[in-house]
Amino acid sequence: MPIALLSVSDKTGLLPFAQALVKDHGYKLLSTGGTSKMLRDAGMPVTDVSEHTGFPEIMEGRVKTLHPKVHGGLLCRRDSHEHLEEAKKHGIDLIDLVVVNLYPFEATVAKPHCSFEDAIENIDIGGPSMLRSAAKNHASVSVVTDPADYERVLAAMKAPETLGELRRELALKVFQRTSAYDAAIANYLESQAQPGAGNVLGLPSRFTSTLPIAQRLRYGENPHQQAALYGSFHEAFEQLQGKELSYNNILDITAATYLIGEFERPTICILKHTNPCGVASADTLLEAWHKAFETDKQAPFGGIIVANRTVDKGLAEAIVEIFSEVIIAPEFDADALAIFGKKKNLRLMRAKVGLRADTLREVRAVIGGVLVQDRDQKPANPRDFKIVTKRAPTADEMTALLFGWRVVRHVKSNAIVYAGKERTLSVGAGQMSRIDSSRIAVWKAGEANSRLRARPSRPTPSSLP
Questions:
Q1: Dihedral angle at the C-alpha atoms of 421, 424, 429, 435, nearest 10 degrees?
Q2: If DSSP codes are grouped into helix, strand and coil, which group holds residue 122?
Q3: Integer angstrom CA distances of residue 290 from 143, 315, 410, 429, 440
Q4: Does position 465 have pLDDT exceeding 50, yes or no?
Q5: Nearest residue to 65 (alpha-carbon basis) of 107, 17, 19, 98
Q6: What's the whole-number mean pLDDT along residues 427-448?
Q7: Is 50 exceeded by the pLDDT of residue 451?
Q8: Are the CB atoms for 163 and 120 separated by under 8 Å?
Q9: Confidence bin at 463 (pLDDT 50/70/90)
Q10: Which domains are present in the chain?
Q11: Are strands 3-7 and 28-31 parallel, antiparallel or unpaired?
């Protein structure tokens, strides 16, 4: 009689799966704790692991399955005469199927008021051990850690010629899961450590990241490049309409979220290729839109627009006068949705968790590794400014400078922003020479009929490099 060991925290779909194992394939069930109780309450024959091993659960359940009769049954090679003889000698029954998912450590530490003690108690020990033992011996043992695979396992049992390939796939899935689980624990413990305690200037001594795939993209920055999105991006945004997000869309949405997070007042930011091309704050979003759009009326074509308040009918009517790729906001009212709904390809993104990006570090790939740095989030403080002009800025000029500083760190270097009161006047981005960036900014300001006057051959003191 084949034996299955079932011990799960996520019981989704387990009961019908267990019933099929017993009824259709003649399995004997071993189980622990709450899983055993659920199966027994459903009238299913089940043997507790403690009965199987002859050793009770101890230390408040911390030790349940760490026993030779469990791991010997998992690790025994069926093609080894010596292994089989040892198993027989020690009364070890072979286990053919393991169904285990782990204590919800990641979900536990994500709770706002999770205590350190709760986090530690949600570190699973027996579960990963069983998964790893079964996965190592996947030539003989099927191992399932994801309820989504239950039906695939049952189907493979009816077509044994497919079982070997599926077992290899499930073993890979196990090691991906256990490595991610261990990384989550290590990252949590690192986050709780005192700065400098085994770290370099507060950064971890080992950089660990294991992110699940979230979306396979049509292509990358260019059509010949493959691309995929990993992590929890979709937990932050809900797409309400429009075409599938592209690689470049996701970069732009991220840049827009970082930028809009600088502002408290009603604000509109317009971006193109991750660079701001118009930013303004006002008493209403509609007024902010007109001020931001005045910065540059050509660059926003095919760009990204982000608002930090609900988009209403008036703003929607103004925005649809130009072609946009993506619009992001905390909410869209019914009238706005109806207006945007006529633009079937326009992507509308609702920010589900607000528009303040909580990413604390930036990561960039380099040859042989990655560079990691803290995000540039330090607020500009006039007391830190060194005044190098013949006169100090007036109060209004200082207000404009501070607005410009909020924008300029989101512009690709060399970056020049000319700013007025709660608005950008022009942006010069991404030039090898700051003088060229300044020339572009002055030219753009002139196109917008700004009152700005500056010699085009050199940056003015109000430029923000």
A1: -50
A2: coil
A3: 59, 10, 21, 22, 22
A4: no
A5: 98
A6: 87
A7: no
A8: no
A9: very low
A10: 3-192 (3.40.50.1380), 218-351 (3.40.140.20), 378-465 (3.40.140.20)
A11: parallel
d(CA 46, CA 34): 12
pLDDT, tens only, 1-41: 899 999 998 999 999 999 999 999 999 999 988 899 999 99
pLDDT above 80: residue 199:
no
How confident is the model at residue 14, as a pLDDT?
94
CA distance 131 to 102: 10
Active site residues: 136, 273
Residues in CB range of 252: below 8 A, 6 or more apart: 271, 272, 273, 274, 303, 304, 325, 326
Distance (Å, whole) CA 352 – CA 57: 43
| Pairing state between β 369-374 and 28-31 | unpaired
- Separation CA 388–CA 254 (nearest Å): 35
- The vertex-376 CA angle with 375 and 381, nearest 5°, equals 150
Q: What tens digit of pLDDT does each residue of 110-157 get? A: 888 899 999 999 998 999 999 999 999 999 999 999 999 999 999 999
In a 13 Å sphere around the CA of 407, the CA atoms on its Cβ side amount to 37
How wide is the angle at C-alpha 387 spanned by C-alphas 382 and 391, nearest 5°? 115
pTM for the whole structure = 0.78
- Return the pLDDT at 139: 92
- Chain-centre distance for alpha carbon 278: 28
> Are the CB atoms for 448 and 295 separated by under 8 Å?
yes
DSSP string, 294-360: HH-SSTTTTEEEEESS-B-HHHHHHHTTS-EEEEEES-B-HHHHHHHTTSTT-EEEEEBTBS-----
Residue carrying structure tokens 């930090």: 308
Tokens standing for 63? 């030790």
